[in-house]
Every structure is written in structure tokens, then in C-alpha cells.
Amino acid sequence: MRALVRLYQRDLRETFRLSIPIVVAQLGVVLMGVTDNLMIGRLLGAVPLGAAGVAHSVTFLIGSIGIGGISIVSALVSKAYGQHDTAEIGHLFRAGIRVAWLLSGALGLLGLLVVWQFEFLQQTPAITQLARPFVLILLLSNAPLLVFMAIRQLCDGLSRPRVAMYITMSALVLNAFLNYALIRWLGLNGAALGTLLARGYMAVAIWLYTRQDNFFQPYLEVVAVPLKGLILKILRLGLPGGFQFFFEIAAFSLAVIMIGWLGEPQLAAHQIAINMASTTYMMATGISAAGSIRVGRALGLGSLPAVQRAGTAAFLLTAVFMSGCCLLFLSANEWLVSLYIRDNAQVAAIAASLMIIAGFFQLSDGIQVVGLGVLRGVSDVNLPTLFTFLAYWVLALPLSYVLAFPLGLDVVGVWIGLLVGLTVSALLLTVRFYRKLRRLRREGLKA
Questions:
Q1: Which residues form a coiled coil (predicted)?
Q2: CA torsion through residues 138, 139, 140, 146, sign
Q3: What distance in Å separates the CA atoms of residue 385 and residue 405, rounded to the nearest whole number?
Q4: Residue 220 and residue 241: Cα distance in Å, rounded?
Q5: Could you give the residue ranges of the DSSP H alpha helices within 340-394?
Q6: What DSSP designation does 38 have?
């Protein structure tokens, strides 16, 4: 028993060590949006804040397919690293960058279609007018973000996540400075331009770093081979992961649209609360990424007990972290809202009530994203994609609509529906991981 405890202590420690820089990097990416909203809310008011919220939701929804799709590369790199296959790692790196450019182009065209038909979202005229050019600029910023994410997969898969962490945090500072200057000069669109410039810096910085650090040279100097097969493999395994991400983000983005039908105060309040929840969620995705990398490494070594310990450690870490976030949201909801807005009592009151619900779904949100990560580590992507579709689109969104409109619970009803969807997803994905372990044992993975 003591030996088992020591084993899990080691796995918890290693997962924690790997996840911290990934969490910081993930937090830096989402904090760019938080920075935008903080400055827009303070400098421009509730209506521009609502427009920025819709624009960020739409563009992040579109980009989520690419971000989720690229994320499979770190697990594949980690598995190849466990097998000591230097050439495969180098080929995955090159193929990942090409996939990033392919997805950037395809998703950019999709984004242009959304901008053209923006009235379909049925937002107020003021929100539509402000959000449309904001979306166009953010769509451009998705290209350097995906290139950054593709190069980052090499760093994370080789357990060198600090590279991306330092670059992301420096980009966050740059984004804040650019936002302050450009919002005062260009108004709302200045915030979007600041994000574009900061993401461009991220892509260039990580590209230069990997080429100057001797650690990465063996993987960058492998003999070039045709990459069509690897590109197709990344797309085959990555796109289901991208749609997993998409289904959840889409649920929240469509929730923004529904809330926009309720009115501008509700939309601004939702944007405040969802920014806080998105921050903790992105930190949980860091633990998820670490779990995916460690599970992939264990799979490459051919050790079933190591796969189980790596996955369980990720679940335990996120349970502890998100429980702490839950207590913070429940006990300091009004203070957290005051960081965003102080001169609109109606918006602040609605946002404070939403923070209570956000507190309750912290644990479900963390567990479900870690479930997706550890399943990605064993290349199990198809059934989890179906789970997320059912939980968010078949259950959460219809329930949100019924609670908000026919039953008259307003914006609180939308959030209760989302809570139910997250909880169902967390249960299904956790059960799936441990059933997958039993299947790997039957397939002959070393016990």
C-alpha cells in the first residue's frame, strides 16, 4: 500500500510539474481576452463590452476546431519520445505546422461567411455594428495563434513547456500595453488589433527560439520525407479532438447568442462571469494537456500501470484545483464582478448571481476537459466526440432555452442548462477512460 501511495505521489508531482508552465501559458492566452474585456468595460462601457464578448465568442468558436485539432500533436510527439524515435518527432513537427496553415485558411473562410451573415445571430443593431469589424481583425489573429500552437506541441510533447510559458506571458504584457494605447486611439477595434499584433509576436518568438536552442536541433535536422501521410494522420486524430473542443465552446457561444436575445445588460453580465469561468477552464486545460502528454509517454513505453497512474493523477489534480476555484467564486462573487464594472448596478447584480452558478460547475468543467485530454493520450477520439455532442447540443442547449424562455428563468436558466451538460460530459468521459484501460489490458499492453 505504501509503495502504491509513493507511486501516485510521484505521478502527481510529475503531472503538477509539467502542468504548471502549460497552465500559465494557457492562462496567458485566455487572459488576452480578459484584458480586452477589462479595458473595454472600463474605457468604453457596457455595449462595447457586449460586442467584444460576442466577437470573441464567435472567433474563438471558429478557432477552437484548429486549436483542438492541433493539440493531438503533443501526445503523438510524447509517444514517439517514449519510443526514442527522433525522426518521427521531427516529421510530426513539420506536419503540425502545415496542418496549422491548412486549418487557418479553411477556418478563415468560414469566419468570413459568418461576418457576411452576421445578422443571422440576431443581436441588437448596436452590438452587430460594433462586433462585425472586431471579428474580422480577430479572424486574422487566428493564423499566427495556430502556428504558435503547432510549434508549441513540439515543446510540450518533449516536456519543455516553459518555452511557450515565457513567450505567452511576455505577449500578455505586450497585449495590455497595445490595448491601452490602441483603444484610446482607435476605439473598440484597437483592442482587436492589439491581440493580432501580440499573437503575431508569439508565433515569431517561438519559431526563433526553437531554431536557436540546441535541444531542439536533432528534431529539426531530420531528413525531410513526404508528409502527406502524417498530415492525414494528424487530421484524422486531431479533427475529432477539434470538434470536441468545438462542441463545448459552441454551446457557450450559442448561449451568448441566446442571452443577447434577452438584452444588453444580461449579455454584459454573462461576459463578465464567463470570462472568470473561462480563465479557470483554460487553467484546467493545462492539466489536461499535461495528462495527455504523460499518458502518451506511458503508452509509448508500453506500460499499462503507468498509463493508469498518469490519467488518475490528472483527474486528482484538477479536482483539487477546481474545488478551490468553486470556493472562490461562491465566496467572492461580488468582488470579482467589481473588477470589471462598477457604474452599472443592474449588470453587476446579474453577473454576481451568475458567478454562483459558475462556482458550482467548476468541478464538472475541469473533470470533463481532463477526461478529453487523457483519452487523447491513448488516441481515443471518436466516442468522446459523440459524448460532447450529446452533452452540449442534445442536452445542454435545448435545456438552456427551455429554462430561459418558456420557464422564464432568464439568463440564470441558460447557465443551469450549461451546468447540466458539463456534468453529464464529465461522468461519461471519466467512465470511458477507465473502460479504455481494461480494453488496453485485453489487447496485451503490459500490466
A1: none
A2: positive
A3: 29
A4: 26
A5: 345-360, 362-377, 382-389
A6: H
Average pLDDT for runs of 10 along the chain of length 447: 64 86 77 76 75 78 82 86 85 90 89 79 75 86 91 88 88 88 84 90 93 86 79 86 79 80 82 80 85 88 86 91 90 82 78 87 90 89 89 93 90 91 93 90 66
Q: Give the type of residue at 60.
A: F
Core vs surface per residue 215-235: b (16+ CB within 10 A) or e: ebeebeeeeeeebeebbebbb
Q: Which residues, listed in sequence order, are joined to residue 48 by a DSSP beta bridge?
A: none
Cα separation of 425 and 383, whole Å? 12
Residue 426's Cβ-count burial label (10 Å; 0-12, 13-18, 19+) is buried
Domain map (residue ranges) of the chain:
2-442
Largest CA distance in the chain: 64
How is residue 431 written as a grid cell?
Answer: 467512465
Radius of gyration of the chain from its Cα atoms, rounded to whole angstroms: 21
pTM over 0.90? The answer is no
Q: How far apart are the first and last CA of the chain?
A: 17
Residues contacting 66, CB < 8 A, separation 6+: 100, 103, 104, 107, 142, 146, 149, 242
Q: Which CA distances in Å does 295 have to 11, 288, 307, 336?
A: 11, 10, 5, 36
